[in-house]
Amino acid sequence: MTSLDSVLDKDGVRLTVDDAVATVTLTNPARRNAQSPALWRALAEAGRELPGSVRVVVLRGEGKSFSAGLDRQAFAPGGFDGEPSFTDMARGPEADLDATIAAYQEAFTWWRRNDIVSIAVVQGHAIGAGFQLALACDLRIVAEDVQFAMRETSLGLVPDLTGTHPLVHLVGYARALEICATGRFVHAEEAERTGLANLVVPADQLDAAASDLAAALLAAPRDAVVETKALLSGALSRSYEEQRTAERAAQGRRLRDLAGLAD
After folding, report:
1. What is the pTM of this model?
2. 141 with 116: CB under 8 angstroms?
């Protein structure tokens, strides 16, 4: 997908905008787009920098892998330059550790805002933080060579970058537990069958598939998509009667808007 306007390019993240479509690209293929606190800050900044005209955000990674997960340098005694190591963080006050993890999570939270639809375009490895970043998006198009895995437990950790909530909603509690506790790979066929992937295509067709999906999402009026996304994203937390009420309220807003009677 070709973009016209570069908005951000730093710390392994590039944000470009082409009218109503923004593309966020992980740009460190030599390290299989391994993630770091600096990258997470850049991803959070990308969300804040989105122009109001953007309706669809495409997330992709350069190279053969979408993202191999957390850069193992985080576990080295010195950590990353200018950053506390994970060991140093663990030795600090509990409140500080909680605040630090919350700040890291901000890179993963904005993808499901109601005013945009996000599409993760995933090839090769999407491991740990990479898997959770793909799960942060609304939709996923994956290549036939995709390999999802939640490997945190093998390191003695837990998935803490917002991935557990969407994973359980997509595949159910039992399968989510098995995927996380074993750290096994989930390949393309299973990803599509269980709902992790909306579409599986050959790797050389990923960009075309993302462009086609983005165009389809842009075909409907923006406000109708925003209202529909809000209805669907809240459905699991509402009772049947609460969802009926939410549907009536949303439809009332749409009808008033179409009739020129909106507040």
Report:
1. 0.93
2. no
